[in-house]
């Protein structure tokens, strides 16, 4: 990402994603209660797709960081709603098997990130994708996968309606979300990380 001025700030592309993910994940359930499980599940990939387009077309590092943060927001919705939806649709006796299979899909990617230099030569692919000329493929490849994911969700995911046992209105549910706490939490973490990032510079 050096070609868009990211020599000293490239780490923030990943940090922004993680921070946004951490901010939205605690309220993803409430969001699904407000808009419905199906619409929340579709909203997550939509936001990620927009974020990845922003990253892939960015010509400044701050734009790429913003796009990554947007993808993190969508990722929180997708991960939480995806897990809940899987467990909701799977038979009770088979939930462990279905959930374990879903997690197993992530295993090769985790191994590649951790042991890329020794794991089936995947470091060569990673190095090629993130070289100065082709790092944008790091956005385009997930974009293609997410587009397929969105299409499959749109066609096949029709969860049963959830019963609101407490009789809360959408306004009541919205008021229960601790927005101030989320802002303070994420702001505090961001300021701490900024201090760590810039502490070595004059």
Describe the protein in words.
There is one protein chain. The protein is an all-alpha fold. The chain has nine helices and no strands. α2 (28-35) crosses α3 (37-57), α3 (37-57) runs antiparallel to α4 (61-89) and α3 (37-57) packs antiparallel against α7. It is globular. The protein starts with 10 loop residues before the first helix and ends with a helix. The model is unreliable at 116-124 (pLDDT under 50).
Q: How far is it from the N-terminal to the C-terminal residue, by CA?
A: 23 Å
CATH superfamily: MFS general substrate transporter like domains
Task: Tell me the number of structural domains.
Answer: 1
Shape label: globular
Low-pLDDT residue spans: 116-124
Question: SSE string, helix = H, strand = E?
Answer: HHHHHHHHH
Proportion in helices: over 70%
Please state the CA-atom Rg, rounded to the nearest Å. Answer: 19 Å
């Amino acid at each position: 990402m050096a070609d868009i001025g990211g020599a000293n700030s490239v780490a923030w592309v990943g940090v922004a994603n993680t921070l946004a993910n951490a901010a939205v994940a605690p309220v993803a359930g409430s969001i699904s209660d407000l808009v419905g499980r199906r619409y929340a599940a579709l909203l997550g990939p939509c936001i990620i797709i927009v974020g990845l387009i922003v990253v892939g077309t960015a010509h400044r590092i701050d734009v790429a960081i913003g796009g990554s943060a947007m993808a993190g927001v969508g990722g929180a919705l997708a991960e939480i709603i995806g897990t809940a939806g899987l467990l909701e649709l799977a038979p009770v006796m088979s939930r462990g098997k279905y959930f374990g299979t879903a997690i197993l899909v992530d295993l090769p990617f985790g191994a590649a990130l951790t042991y890329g230099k020794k794991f089936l030569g995947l470091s060569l692919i990673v190095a090629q994708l993130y070289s100065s000329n082709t790092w944008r493929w790091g956005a385009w490849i997930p974009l293609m996968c997410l587009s397929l994911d969105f299409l499959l969700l749109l066609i096949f995911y029709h969860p049963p309606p959830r019963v609101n046992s407490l009789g809360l209105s959408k306004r009541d549910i919205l008021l229960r979300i601790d927005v101030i706490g989320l802002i303070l939490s994420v702001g505090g973490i961001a300021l701490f990380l900024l201090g760590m990032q810039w502490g070595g510079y004059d």
